[in-house]
Amino acid sequence: xxxxxxxxxxxxxxxxxxxxxxxxxxxxxxxxxxxxxxxxxxxxxxxxxxxxxxxxxxxxxxxxxxxxxxxxxxxxxxxxxxxxxxxxxxxxxxxxxxxxxxxxxxxxxxxxxxxxxxxxxxxxxxxxxxxxxxxxxxxxxxxxxxxxxxxxxxxxxxxxxxxxxxxxxxxxxxxxxxxxxxxxxxxxxxxxxxxxxxxxxxxxxxxxxxxxxxxxxxxxxx
Amino acid sequence: xxxxxxxxxxxxxxxxxxxxxxxxxxxxxxxxxxxxxxxxxxxxxxxxxxxxxxxxxxxxxxxxxxxxxxxxxxxxxxxxxxxxxxxxxxxxxxxxxxxxxxxxxxxxxxxxxxxxxxxxxxxxxxxxxxxxxxxxxxxxxxxxxxxxxxxxxxxxxxxxxxxxxxxxxxxxxxxxxxxxxxxxxxxxxxxxxxxxxxxxxxxxxxxxxxxxxxxxxxxxxxxxxxxxxxxxxxxxxxxxxxxxxxxxxxxxxxxxxxxxxxxxxxxxxxxxxxxxxxxxxxxxxxxxxxxxxxxxxxxxxxxxxxxxxxxxxxxxxxxxxxxxxxxxxxxxxxxxxxxxxxxxxxxxxxxxxxxxxxxxxxxxxxxxxxxxxxxxxxxxxxxxxxxxxxxxxxxxxxxxxxxxxxxxxxxxxxxxxxxxxxxxxxxxxxxxxxxxxxxxxxxxxxxxxxxxxxxxxxxxxxxxx
Lengths: 222, 465
Known about the structure:
The complex is a heterodimer. By secondary structure, chain A is an alpha/beta fold. Chain A folds into two domains: 6-87, Methyltransferase, Methionine Synthase (B12-binding Domains), Chain A, domain 1 (Orthogonal Bundle); 97-221, Rossmann fold (3-Layer(aba) Sandwich), CATH 3.40.50.280. The longest helix of chain A has 24 residues, at 64-87. A five-stranded parallel beta sheet of chain A has the order 2-1-3-4-5, sandwiched between helices. Helix content of chain A is 58%, strand content 10%. In chain A, helix 1 (6-18) runs antiparallel to helix 2 (21-33) and helix 2 (21-33) packs parallel to helix 4. Chain A has helices at 6-18, 21-33, 38-58, 64-87, 110-121, 135-145, 161-172, 190-195, 205-221; strands at 97-102, 125-128, 149-153, 180-184, 200-201. By secondary structure, chain B is of the alpha/beta class. Chain B has one domain (98-462): Monomethylamine methyltransferase MtmB (TIM Barrel), CATH 3.20.20. Classes of the chains: A alpha/beta, B alpha/beta. The A-B interface holds A 58, 60, 63-66, 68, 72, 104-105, 107-108, 110, 156-162, 164, 186-187, 204 and B 25-26, 29-30, 32-33, 131, 157, 159, 165-169, 173, 203, 205, 231-232, 237, 261, 263-265, 267-268, 299-300, 302, 370.
């Protein structure tokens, strides 16, 4: 890889931190024009910068608008870098595909949206199904997108059983072993996750990113 | 302008500006940030009950600007429902300032209070956002309803119906809604207060479920209320609006539930305060609300007794009290659980803010509403006593007391003492708190008395003013 001047990296980091899409686009293109390796930019600039924004968000040093803006800027950079990676004849840098949604009858989606932003910024392909998602829709999307992980979110005790119903449907049609299914949200805890046979539970969005990484690492080892 | 806005709202929902929800969220965030800067709103973690009249007034103006500029997002049509400034001002002016809640000898008047008002707060109690098991739910409700200082009963959610998970939209939701409503009716009868106002049926998540809870004999009556929710931030849908249509047509109280998220789309405390005030406007225009539950909460921990949560309550309460005559109620969510002293300190802080900033009282959502059966009548009694004791005191004095309260629980917020559920802090036959829970209550009470809060006599002196 060509040696890239640190100011160029700093510009990109700063644009990402501040969620400035145009500046991010410019800094990413400039870095590539100067000979930067797109994969290295992704792994050594984008991911650490967004990880830091995620940490600040968990510590309440920044808030959801800043997280969303950084996530949007990261999407701009990722698109450019992905295209450059593919153009160079290499495989896509995606860390894995995650189908994400809030379970049936649950209309709360802010937590799920936060997770989607963090996952995208960590290089995952995120297929966000939105809120009030029927079990069959999760299954259909998992099959169509060839998902690695299906992430179910539920906020209310009254909608929590839908996480079980969704997992049961995957089992009933014999697709359970093809996907890792994780659960989270206000009304979920580790004992519920265990009871319904989920592959993992995370108490917050940052932990869910770590969980996804860990599950996919284990999958790769196999 | 008409008293019933719904036909106009449906019309505007169908022809208003189309916008994807994600774009609305981003536009909303940018607008709030701009308003925080334009109106120079500034959160100060040491001044939780601000007295800066200009900033309080600016907050109100920012909220009206936000509402008029963006409108309400209807998720059903993916369109913005826009109102003019004149329409907003007229609707606020026409909103109720005094309500009769309940019926017969148990009816109470709940009215606009104002900043540093001497009018006592009404106390709404019950399992606030807290799930209950079927066996303890009726006992928990009765423990709240039997408290003399409790004026209205909220009846929370049962977690199951005949042991089965309640699937929203299924017959089980209807059956659970009717069963839960019957429990609330029975609880107030058992407490000797059959006309007490019941504020909601929380197990139902759909319009059909809410409607199923209404039954003159054994369910909710028109003198009771039902919640209509706003989705954070600034969002409604046809299911919620349909509830308003039905409740308005039968003359039942409409309770506007908002949950602006501190750290969410509105950003920090300043932005969330703007959103909270503006959400009241949404409740006035879209829902024709009788009264409002100010249920803002921390995005990550779902509580509102931390510094930012208290500041938002203080600022939004004052902005509304200084510029409108709306009836609004705080909605306390604590990190700590039942039976703990930390819970009571959290409640004391939240209750004092509400009392001095124009609000009525509602609580307590212990353990942020996460743990089952974490509600009893004792913390409601305590909240009401604190609210009475705070009357007649100025905001500066209250601010000092709140900082003192915080020193007793703030350190534990990240790892709260979850305490014990109802059957472990109450005798489930006599429905009296056990000695340990009473001892915690007495200890915190004594500490508050040492701070010059008149916990013994304030309610006696003010109750019948």
